[in-house]
Each structure stands twice: as structure tokens, then as C-alpha cells.
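[[Encoded backbone]]
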Amino acid sequence: MADRASRQLIVNADDLGQSPGVNRGVAVAHDTGIVRSASVMVRWDAAPSAFRDAARSGLDLGLHLDLGEWAFEAGRWRAVYEVVDLQDESAVHAEVHYQADVFVQLRGTAPSHVDTHQHVHRRPGIAAAARSVADRFGVPLRDANTSARHCGAFYGQTAEGAPRPGAVSVEALVGLLADLLPGATELVCHPGLDVDLDTMYREERAVEVATLCDERVRRAIDDLGIDLCSFAMLA
């Protein structure tokens, strides 16, 4: 059995607040599963209820900066929606700090971590703005100033939206757990129930909930000596 202190796992649910169905899925995956942190999209109508539910359950919360969403259809990417012009760096900077202000207003405290919807902060023109929000609060930014390595392999589609149902199965998740490296890992997930969103990632969300709550996953975490934690606990 591995040294229990050698591997820490943060199971973080993205997209919290985007819809009531996403909120329900995250709540179930936290209450009866292995989710310990979530990243909130503060622009959506379901965000205030997400904050209220998290206050009751103790779910650790970060900020999921939302600048738009894109879907791959007929061989090309189309915008589902765009919040700002991503080529306008000043508009991007203003928007991400506006969303940070909303988070603090709704939560009452700073986020424990920062990331972005569809990882747009990996783009050069957006990276600096996202980092400025993380630096403002002194918290980790995914793939940047964090000791927790990012794992995005628990995802039921390819980058272009082709189905990969096996990637969110219990067997796949147990395999990811067995291969965790020493230190801290953030495993990203996207749970949801009855999701009513215009998004290319829909049916897979309920499958994720079932997998994240499966007793075999919990048993594997115990057997492998992995410590479940949150960003707040890691800090």
C-alpha cells in the first residue's frame, strides 16, 4: 500500500452555477461521492443558489472565469456564446476582475483557486488576465502557479466532441487513481443531472455523477492510500 501522505487528490467539479442541473449533480457528487472542490461560473442565474448550497455543505469553492463557450460542429468551431472579444486584452482584464468581484460579493470570501471555462487562460492574450486574478487573491491558477498538477483525463469526449464513454467509467477512474504520481493532483470533473444547457457536453455529466459516487472508487482511494482534499486544505 502507498504511503498515505504521499499522494493528495483534489477532485474539482467545473461549471458549478451554470444551471440547476449542474448544481444538483455537483451536490450529489460532493455529498455522496468524492468531489471536494468546485469552480463557480458567477454570471449564471443558478450561481447564487450554488453559493448558498456550498455554504451549508462545506464545499470548497474557486472561481471558474467564463469568457465564452465553443462547440466543434461540421469540422469547425462555433461560438455557443461569447462574453467579450478575446482579442481585446483590456476588455478581458476588466471582465475577469468583474467576475472576481461578483464571487466575493456572493461568497463573502476570496476563491480558493482560479481556472477558466474551456481552459481559455491557456491562450497567450488571456493568460496574464487570469493570472492577475489569481495573484490578487494569492491562490492557485490551474496549470500555472500551483503545486497541484492538472489531470483532465476524466472526460467523456475528445477535444472535438467525439464520444469517449469509457473515459468516465468506474474502471477508467480507478485506473487514473492507481497511476497518480506523488504529490498533489487536481482531477477535473463535470458532474450534472438533468442538464438543460446548450453545450456539447451533456449526457456524460450524469455518467460522471454515477462514477464519482460509486463505492468501488471510494474503495480504491482507501486501498491506494490516497488523501482526498480540497484546495483550501492543500493551502
Remarks:
- The first helix runs from residue 20 to 31.
- The chain has eight helices and nine strands.
- The CA atoms of residues 84 and 91 lie 7 Å apart.
